[in-house]
Structure formats: structure tokens, C-alpha cells
């Protein structure tokens, strides 16, 4: 399914690629990418000859009925790996363990250091727990990746994609083996993550925001709620004034 889907995506959207030679032909490597759209996990594998394994919610693989089975088959076919989000430490520890297992098999592991999609197209602070810990635990090189315009192909909340040509820019591998075995040092984890995010920023040309994307989403949601509350209050005041 990976090859049929990849061929269809390339034919339909004609994504352009720079730096594909930076992805090794064999051996383990971590592809650390910005995250603009749900379709990022499909476009990147589509342009590579090797399988890339990303993390996905286990719910995608366990939904009942025919639709659930088709969904599960689709995500397995495109290299998505189910992660159980239950438990004390949730998806974080499960993702780290899964990533390490993928790399130990000599495969490619894809990860989004921001932890979630950008709410506004800007690049947000990387979370140090996943990317850095997997890199230091395995010694695998980290390859920075920039997805370009994928949010225009499939904006959040939209099911039908727009026929816009996206791009993928792949940077040179980063070697962090000098820190191997130091995944318990939070300062090292922060330093490794920040270095990767800096390379992604250079590749993508995005504006960098030094807060987590999850915090930015909360701020945007709170602002929207406040604006809606203000709008309702003004409408009520206008209604009372008209009645007097």
C-alpha cells in the first residue's frame, strides 16, 4: 500500500524535494520534521524509497466495524505505528520505546519534535523528551526535515485536499553520539532538541516561537472564547438598549 499511495500522491500533487541524498540508503536514522498538516506523514514517505515509521494513536487501529478495519489497514500500510496513550506517562514513553525499537531494526523513524501540528504555520519550541531521548539512546543520526505548504494542501479541519504543490526540504544528518548515554540529563536533551529545531527553522524559513505549540493552541482557544463572550455581551447590551 505504501508504494501505491506514494505513487498516487506524487502523481496528483507533484511534491518537490531538495536534499533527498541526505537520507541514507540503509541503516537507522531519525527524520525530525516540522508539522503543518495531517498529510505530512504521507507526503514525506511518498518521496522516499525507504519505509518511514511514524507514531499514531492506537484508536486508529482499534475502531470497530468495516470503517475501522479499513482505517487500520490504511495506517499500517503507510507506516504508522499504534501507540497506547493510556498509563501514567501516556504516549510519551510509549513513543520513545517504539522509536527505539524501529531504529534497532535499522529502519527510519519519523517524529515531530513540536509534538502537535502548528496552529498558525509558525515553528514552535521542540519538546525534548521524545526526539532527544531516542537519538541519545540509539546513537542514530537525526535528519532535519522541513515540510513546505502542506498546510495549504490540507488545512486543519478540512477533509478534501486542495491541489497545491507542496515541498520537502531535507537537511544534512546531525550526529549526537558524543552525548550517547546522557539521555537522563535534561540540559543535554534541551540542547540537542534546540539544535535540531534551529536546523528545521533554517530549512523551512518559518518564524520561530519559543513556546510549545500546545500552549499556543490554548492561547488561541482562550482568545477565541473571550472574543465570543465579548460579542455575546455586546449583542445583549444592544438588545437591551433597543428595548428601552
TrEMBL record:
SUPFAM superfamilies found in the cross-reference section: Glycerol-3-phosphate (1)-acyltransferase
Coiled-coil ranges per UniProt: 216-244
MF terms (GO), sorted A to Z: acyltransferase activity
UniProt KW Acyltransferase keyword: yes
Record domain Phospholipid/glycerol acyltransferase: where: 29-150
Keyword Coiled coil among UniProt keywords: yes
Alphabetically ordered keywords of this record: Acyltransferase, Coiled coil, Transferase
Name this polypeptide is given: Lysophospholipid acyltransferase family protein
Species, as recorded: Streptomyces bugieae
Amino acid at each position: 500500500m505504501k508504494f501505491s499511495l506514494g505513487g498516487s500522491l506524487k502523481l496528483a500533487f507533484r511534491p518537490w524535494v531538495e536534499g533527498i541524498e541526505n537520507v541514507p540508503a540503509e541503516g537507522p536514522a531519525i527524520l525530525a520534521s516540522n508539522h503543518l498538516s495531517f498529510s505530512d506523514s504521507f507526503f514525506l514517505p511518498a518521496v522516499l524509497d525507504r519505509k518511514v515509521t511514524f507514531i499514531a494513536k492506537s484508536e486508529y487501529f482499534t475502531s470497530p466495524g468495516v470503517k475501522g478495519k479499513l482505517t487500520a489497514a490504511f495506517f499500517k500500510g503507510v507506516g504508522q505505528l499504534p501507540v497506547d496513550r493510556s498509563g501514567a506517562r501516556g504516549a510519551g514513553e510509549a513513543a520513545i520505546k517504539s522509536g527505539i525499537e524501529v531504529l534497532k531494526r535499522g529502519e527510519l523513524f519519523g517524529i515531530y519534535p513540536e509534538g502537535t501540528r502548528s496552529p498558525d504555520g509558525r515553528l514552535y519550541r521542540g519538546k525534548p523528551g521524545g526526539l532527544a531521548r531516542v537519538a541519545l539512546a540509539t546513537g542514530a543520526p537525526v535528519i532535519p526535515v522541513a515540510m513546505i505548504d502542506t498546510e495549504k494542501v490540507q488545512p486543519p479541519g478540512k477533509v478534501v485536499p486542495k491541489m497545491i504543490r507542496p515541498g520537502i526540504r531535507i537537511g544534512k544528518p546531525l550526529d549526537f553520539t558524543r552525548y550517547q548515554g546522557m539521555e537522563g540529563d535534561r540540559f543535554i536533551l534541551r540542547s540537542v532538541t534546540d539544535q535540531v529545531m534551529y536546523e528545521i527553522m533554517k530549512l523551512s524559513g518559518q518564524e520561530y516561537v519559543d513556546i510549545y505549540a500546545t500552549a499556543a493552541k490554548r492561547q488561541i482557544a482562550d482568545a477565541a472564547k473571550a472574543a465570543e463572550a465579548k460579542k455575546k455581551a455586546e449583542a445583549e447590551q444592544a438588545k437591551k438598549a433597543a428595548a428601552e
